[in-house]
Amino acid sequence: MSEISPRNLSTISESERMNGSSKNGNYIKPQIEHKDENLDKRQKKSTTSLVGIPTKLDGTENSGVEVGSSEVEYIESENLNDVDDMEICLKTLLTGLGSKDWVSVCEALNNVRRLSIFHKEVVLGILSDVIPLIVKSLKNPRSAVCKTAIMTCADIFKAYTDDIIDMLDPLLVQLLLKSSQDKRFVCEAAERALIALTTWVSPLLLLPKLQPYIKNRNPRIRAKASMCFCRSVPRLGIEEIEAFGIDKLIQTAASQLSDQLPESRDAARTLLLELQSVYEKSHFLKPTEVSEDPEIASWEHFCQSKLSPLSAQAVLRVTTVAREGLVLGS
């Protein structure tokens, strides 16, 4: 069919436009509209081709991508390969981490991960220079940089365990912040990094670092810190809990029972049940205290002696109800 030019369109009578002039009774439609539609389709196709093959990027589900992020891929730790040239990688590492090109920063962060896994002794000497640059990447507004930095933290915690403790504070505050934000894929990555932290770093060293954040103004940060605290305490043995101070742990847990967010309250309940179990086991295992008054040695008396009346009442309510539930369930 020949195209109808805009000039020819103006000569079509009003009746022809309304009634249509084609043999099959369809209305005549300006072909220029089809041109625009075809142009839109071509533009969309062109835009799609720029994005490239979907990879696991920027929080999109089913491994989708964001435009402009197709050059960076999130690689799980177990899928990372060793660097090609360790010496060259090490020489360019700090420059890459401090680069203004975000793709270069992501590549450098992944190299930190590789070096931490395959050559951790080499990085240990420059870790004090690497950590501030990782913190800078954690603060980066670009999601790809931020998430790659979070994944780097998880690998560093696993590789260096307690060696990281003196440099932990700036990393910890950023991870608590990122795990509390609304961007889901960043939040989930930060939570995994915090789990790695509580898994690989000694609880005796970590608990004092977490305690200030349990009193933070931000309720979400308090909740994440409480969950980390709750995960760390069970890794302590009975002797370590007594060395740390079971009364301090109970006071910390009691302070979260009335917190604003349910995550904090649930973590506090879980921790109190753990502490009650540890307390009763420790007293049961001490044969030298057989003559001690059972009432004085009881969990109830201990809580009342270490907490305010209201806090003791709240703690005993939680632990008593849980015990009664176990008895009824059995």
Automatic annotation (TrEMBL):
Query: What Pfam families does the record tag this protein with?
Result: CLASP_N (PF12348)
- SMART domains the UniProt entry points to: TOG (SM01349)
Q: Where is the composition biased (Polar residues)?
A: 1-25
Q: What is this protein called?
A: ARM repeat superfamily protein
Report the residue ranges that make up the TOG domain in this protein.
Answer: 76-313
Write out the ranges of the annotated region (Disordered): 1-47
Extent of Basic and acidic residues compositional bias? 31-41
